[in-house]
Amino acid sequence: MVATPREAFWAYGVYAGLIVSLTLNARVPLRSLIRRLAIETPFLIFVVALPFLARGERIDVVGLSLSVEGLWGAWNILVKATLGAATVMLLASTTPITSILYGLQKLRVPSVIVAIAGFMIRYADVIASEMRRMKVGRQSRGYEPRVLWQVRALASSAGTLFIRSYERGERVHLAMMSRGYSGTMPELAAVEASPTDWLRAFLVPAVAAVICVLAWL
Predict the structure, then answer these.
(1) Helix 68-94 crosses helix 9-25 at what angle (to 10 degrees)?
(2) What residues contact residue 47 under an 8 Å CB cut-off, 6+ apart?
(3) What is the pLDDT of the chain when averaged over all its residues?
(4) Contact at 8 Å (CB) between 216 and 7?
(5) Are residues 34 and 14 in contact, defined by beta-carbon separation less than 8 angstroms?
(6) Three-state DSSP state, 8
């Protein structure tokens, strides 16, 4: 998708159709996938501003002077970011975390990066539960987030959460070292893929590659 020219509108429609068909085949609710795409909302702010800020030839749209190059750039960023994020969300919805980490190992991603990703995923729930406990503690002391002058308590809680997370990480690291941790995580259990699995895995990327080539012709 990244290599596809921005002018090939039909190609992006086919990409979207592939993602929808994969979503339905995996029995992932489309509504759930769309809700998860809200993660790209901050990027949409930049996309909306791009036609107004970019330079070059301009056209009038509904009384607004917009940059032609900015419009192309906004479309290019929006469609590729949305389709890419949908693909990642679909992968996360259908593949266990351990399988993703094992795949990263097989792709020869540096072991340090794989280990950091694994720890981040494993301890995300721990940090989230710590945040919930701190929230209950603030509310039991009369914290009301709708009052502007009480924002200071939230900022102090963020600093406290960082310190607690850092200290917890040190304790976990010392516990791992005492149990023989040498700096690399043990390899995950191997999973054998059948020829049918390989065929299914390469089918969609092959179709996407054909679409990209046709879009450049």
Answers:
(1) 20
(2) 74, 77, 78
(3) 83
(4) no
(5) no
(6) coil
Strands (E), 4-131: 58-61, 64-67
Domain boundaries, the chain: 9-94, 102-178
* CA–CA distances in Å: residue 31 to residues 22, 27, 84, 147: 14, 12, 17, 34
Q: Which helix (H) or strand (E) is 54 found in, with range?
A: none
Q: Residue 183 — left, alpha, or beta (φ > 0 → left; ψ -120 to 50 → alpha)? A: left
End-to-end CA distance of the chain: give it in Å, rounded: 15
Nearest-Å Rg of the Cα atoms of the chain is: 23
How much of the chain exceeds pLDDT 70, in percent?
Answer: 92
Of 95, 92, 72, the closest CA to residue 84 belongs to 92
Q: Is the dihedral of CA 40, 58, 8, 208 positive or negative?
A: negative
* Distance between CA atoms of residues 198 and 146, nearest Å: 54
Q: For 141-194, how does the pLDDT look when each residue is reduced to its tens digit (9 = 90+)?
A: 777 666 666 667 777 788 888 888 888 888 888 888 888 877 666 666 666 778
Is residue 120 within 8 Å of residue 41, measured between CB atoms?
no
Q: Are 66 and 52 in contact (CB under 8 A)?
A: yes
Q: Going by C-beta distance under 8 Å and a sequence separation of 6 or more, which residues neighbour residue 92?
A: 100
* Exposure of 121 in the CB half-sphere (CA atoms within 13 A): 12
Which tokens go with 81?
């970011």
